[in-house]
Amino acid sequence: MQSSTAEKEFDFVILGSGLGGLACAAILAMEGYSVAVLEKNHQIGGLLQVYSRDKRIFDTGVHYVGSMNPGGSLYQFFKYFGVLEHLKLKRLDEDRFDVIRFEDGCEYRYPQGMENFRATLISSFPEEADAVNQYCDKILEICDKFPLYNLRTSGENYQMDKEVMELNAHDYIASVTDNVRLRNVLAGSNLLYAGVRERTPFYVHALILNSYLSGAYRFADGGSQIAIQLSRTIRKHGGHIFKRQKVVSANYNEEGLVTEVVTEAGDRFRGKEFISNIHPAVTIDIFGEDRFLKVYRSRVQGLENSLPAFLVHVIFHEKTFKYLNYNIYQHHIEDVWGSVTYENDTWPQTTFICTPYITKTGEYADSMSIMTYMNVAETERWAHTVKTVAEPGNRSAEYETFKREKEARVMARLETVFPGIGTMIKSVHSATPLTFRDYVGSRDGAMYGIMKDSRTPARTQINTRTRIPNLHLTGQNVSMHGILGVTVSAFVTCFSFVDKEKLIQKVKNA
Q1: Inter-axis angle of helices 129-144 and 169-176, nearest 10
Q2: Where are the transmembrane segments (predicted)?
Q3: CA angle, corner 152, sides to 150 and 155, nearest 5?
């Protein structure tokens, strides 16, 4: 690191270059503050990262995005950041951006637009029109209670509304209809948020589904372009991004304020304010357990993360498999909530299937991504190992054998969805929860952060402010996961430093 930078005190030092960290950095840099973003890996972006296998690009976590119709919330946020015009987007099919598919071969379409969605469901379940209407109206009612998702700064405090926070997704859906298949269709994309029957709040289900109904798109040629464009905005406004800088500790002054953070390489970054985009439990480790109240520490460290994923990427022989302009949620069991607890002999029970859109191959897919649940206990015996580009460690031959066996199980399931697909495949690659842990920084590789719980909603709420006066939090654990949820969380974090009315007005005027 250059000595001139080492001597500088930044207005803000931000730990982690996931979307939350980059969005905070962009907001603050655009407001005239000096900003430094520290990233432990060689590539910025967290779950926005892509990686290459056999000269093909694969997304780590962003397979499609919602709320991107003109005027939509995320559309406006991206306009405000000055990145929208630079993003390569592919709108998913109007009549089906998601397909919910069951073992019996029956398929149900999620089309774009709430009214289209409503009509399509009623055409599939004509005797359930009242239930469908009640469900759709409830989605809109709940989403209206979250001001920032609608680019408003005022409204009811939904966090104090027990009826919103304690309404369980599975239970509400079950209350509107006795039709078991309709219940499973309505919850059929719950892999999007690692839905758990007893825990997942309805607001999580509602916000995520409604965002996709408001404009579902793919990022052509990979989601890393969001991170790249945001980094350009940050640098354009004088901000700095430092890669391969893993923060390991912090130093304080006599008043208990953080004065600097120290990286594994021994570099020190001084700042007036610090924002952590790292998982709150890991943040406590870095900044010192003794700096946090024991009750807070115990609560945060005891929170359960959402279930991790096993991700398989297949590469096709040239021009053998047509590109799918929609996603498939394939359920091999009837109960769509049942996949989070699985027996090894029945795994995988649910898979998410998509084909990335690559501009140069057009109508043909050059690859496919298949995601399913994987319990972190399955990779526990290799948990002591680390393997990234920045830390190129080794995992054992036994680990590679484990991966090959799991890949084969996933491919056998895929063959039931697309008979004969095996002949089109050139190679298969995979990522376990350990891969996500090493690249994203959550302790067990959870893609969606802390699990929200309708039974004890206050326990899973994380404030952006901490007991350390100049340490703040951002990211998917603060608000919601997903591109829109994390962007909203960045604005919430920045409201401590920037007038929220003026800031949201800038977003609306973009």
Answers
A1: 140
A2: 12-30
A3: 105
* Sheet with 350-354, edge to edge strand ranges: 107-110, 98-102, 327-331, 350-354, 367-373, 309-316, 425-431
SS3 251: strand
Q: Burial of 509 by CB count in 10 Å (0-12 exposed, 13-18 middle, 19+ buried)?
A: exposed
Pair 10, 35: CB distance under 8 Å: yes
CA angle 15, 20, 24 (to 5 degrees): 80
Return the SS3 of 123.
helix
Give the number of residues written for the chain.
510
d(CA 323, CA 183): 29
The pair of three-digit structure tokens given for residue 435, joined into one six-digit string = 């891969």
C-alpha to C-alpha distance for 213 and 69, rounded to whole angstroms: 9
List the one residue out of 105, 120, 201, 102 whose CA is nearest residue 159: 201
Q: Are 20 and 276 in contact (CB under 8 A)?
A: no
H helix runs in 224-318, sequence order = 224-236, 280-287, 294-302
Could you tell me the end-to-end alpha-carbon distance of the chain, in angstroms, rounded to an integer?
36
Query: What values do phi and psi take at 423, rounded to 5?
Result: -70, -15
> Which of these, 210, 201, 212, lies nearest to 137 by C-alpha position?
210
Backbone angles phi, psi at 203, to 5 degrees: -65, -35
CA dist., res. 319 & res. 80, Å (int): 39
Please state, in angstroms and rounded to a whole number, the distance separating the CA atoms of residues 409 and 422.
13
Q: What are the tokens at 496? A: 């401590």
List the one residue out of 447, 284, 425 whose CA is nearest residue 366.
Answer: 425
Tokens of 480: 């919601």
* Residue found by looking up tokens 């979250």 in the block: 146
In tens digits, the chain (510 residues) has pLDDT values of 443 455 789 999 999 999 999 999 999 999 999 999 999 988 887 777 766 677 777 776 678 999 999 999 999 999 999 999 999 999 999 999 999 999 999 999 999 999 999 999 999 999 999 999 999 999 999 999 999 999 998 766 666 688 899 999 999 999 999 999 999 999 999 999 999 999 999 999 999 999 999 999 999 988 889 999 999 999 999 999 999 999 999 999 999 999 999 999 999 999 999 999 999 999 999 999 999 999 999 999 888 888 889 999 999 999 999 999 999 999 999 999 999 888 888 899 999 999 999 888 879 999 999 999 999 889 999 988 887 666 677 788 999 999 999 999 999 999 999 999 999 999 999 989 888 887 776 777 787 888 999 999 988 889 999 999 999 999 988 888 889 999 999 999 999 999 999 999 999 999
Q: Which domains does the chain have, with CATH numbers?
A: 3-89+220-304+452-509 (3.50.50.60)
Tokens, residue 203: 């607001």
Check: CB of residue 306 under 8 Å from CB of residue 289: no
